[in-house]
Model the fold of this input.
Amino acid sequence: MGIRLGKLLFVLALIIAPWGVVQAEEPAEDKNYDLRVSLGASLNDVDDYAGRVAEYRSIVDMDSTWYLDGSLRYTGDALRFDLQGHYENVNEQRYRGDLEWQRLFLFKTNYERFYHRLDHDTLSNLEAHSLEELFTVTKGSLTKWVSKPAGAGLATVYHDDFGRNDRYGISHSFWKNELKINLPALPGVSFELVHRYEERDGLDQARTLSKCAACHVVAKSKAIHEFTNDWNPRLNAMLGKLTLQYSFLYRTFDNSNDVPYNIYNEAMRPISGVPPVTPPAGLLLFDAELQFDQSNGPLPFARTPETKKWMHVLKAKYDFTSTKNVFLSFVSSDIQNTRTDEGQDSLFGNVGKELDIQYNALMGRFFARLRRGLTLTIKGKYADMDGDDVFLDVNEMRLPDDYSKFPGKTYGEVIGCDCDITRHSSYDQKEYTIESRLAWRYDRRLRFIFGYQWNRIERENAAEEAGYPPVTEDSSKHVFSLTANWRPDHRFKVRADYRLRLIVDPYTHKKAYCPEQLPDFDNDKNDDGWADIWYDKNWYSKYVYETRRFDMSTEPDTDHDFRLKADWILSEKAIFQANVRYYYGENDELEDYKYKRQAFNAGLNLTFQPFAHLGLNVGYQYFWDKTESKFCSAFYHG
Amino acid sequence: MDIDWENEVHVLYASFSSQPLPKLEVEGSLSYTFAQAEMDDLTFSPEDDPFALPGYSFANLNGTDEFSDLNYKMFELEMNFLYRFRPDLSFGLQVWYGSFEDDDAYVYGDLDGDAYTFTGFVTYRF
Done:
């Protein structure tokens, strides 16, 4: 450290010394430009793990880095510009520029790049060996161990991290350009073009899982190269009392990310009897219960989609008077996943078409000053969202025609399950909102704001008959709010807020847990030591999942939110601030338990200037949060 | 099983700015964060199993509540010095030090770490 510090000081001395012998010059203050250049260097170091202490500081990985900073401002009669730049290393740089020509042409550009470190899940908790004795299993001509590593006992779960030496992190780049053109021939009309480019580049961890007979969790490193481009032209028109804006957005999200592949474990039927057991003929029955295993070869996982989005926004505002106006907006968007029709079959994520989500919303707002000190705002909104349905063609294995049991059949045909289904989108919903706000100035010192909102969501594919876990179909919400601003004198002010929400039918997963005791369920019907799933009373989706009894939710049916903030000018040298917030929410509509959440935070802050050239600020913040809910775990559901 | 999850964070911070000499400006800030979180004990027994099955038991879940335990302290200090030799020439120094102490390491391993940056630069105004 001492040698590096000495080198830094030597470099800086070389930079500073020549300036010391140059005649001191006062910069001409009447010049129309200002140029500043900063040149320097950093010495850096990090010990142990950098992911938390320097989560967003990439330069600590390098012993030394440059420090370059500069700005150039020019103010002319017709042209003005302001440029700034900062560079420390490739992952620590930012630039911005503003340019203006005769108020007709305005251009802004902004670029920033930084590095975000990501954690590496070691999977070390995913290693559980439950039996002392080692099992061997013979399947066809193969005899193999049903655990890993050999000699460690039967593994219920085990892991492999194929990227164990890799460090994960993403470089984020953001570049935004805004161009505005005011047309002198058309006063009140302006054209804007906004362009945004975002890039994510780096390495992240991808995980997947084999199951049966043991759960085998695998992690692999995945290179990330993602690009988002937004093109957003806008037209603004101020036509007397009417103001209009139309904007169109075209967004593309592309990537050349790695697609990790995994060869999944060979399907092995779980053992249920007392060891040692010899597997009988008919083990192929178990393979036919699964969609894929080792015999399907390498299969992709953690794929990243590519999307395109088109969005139209139309806004209009009409000022009846300076104290009464109405505002309307309409939004229509379409987002398309362009990769859902790629790949060999459903195991590669191919569902036969590009999937769409469409969104349309209409919003209106009316504002009026009813009289001095009393204003009213009323808002309404209607939104409709629709997502494509997806037909899932389940990959089924058919038993050989000469098989000893159920020849030529699939598992679904034997148990009577039409496993290929159409999934209806959970995005399909309509939303209605009506809101009002009354602001009343009681006197110069005291002001109140009363608010009420009604909101309703109608979910179109929530019902159990649609063939998937049911959720609440329709939810309604009533929100009452009260705000008071009190300023007894120029030194002291207080703001208090209270909000009460009453939610009718909160969003709930219906029949989420606790199946009834299954009639005739017998894990090993023929007592041969092997689990019998082809026995129809062991058909899980019908006799286990559908017999679940109790609902679960993390949305309250009632909640309260109190906030208080005070600012006090103690003297011309000291300001004191305090804040408090308490939240309480509960859902006691659930049959088996009560969901509850409480949160409390408080803070103090003191700003003090004891002398003319010394300012101090000290503070403390406290946060507390507690959630009470239900813990459920499935038993032997694979 | 009914459970609760609780977390608590304390943050202390202080900063100052001063001009001890006509040509020297000094700023500094420090913050100290102490955070902890935990979930109730999960306590199962083999009697909770719906049927006997070698290798599978709810009793194997005991201790998994520790997955959500959190306990760490973080300290950050930053100092900035700016000395103006003349209106067109100045020298700046920035020092940053951070420390993270992980007292409940789990799936991501021990997250302890210390780091610093020490930056010096000269600014000329044309």
In short: The first helix of chain A runs from residue 2 to 21. Residues 18-27, 147-153 of chain A have pLDDT under 50 and may be disordered. The first strand of chain A starts at residue 33 and ends at 48.
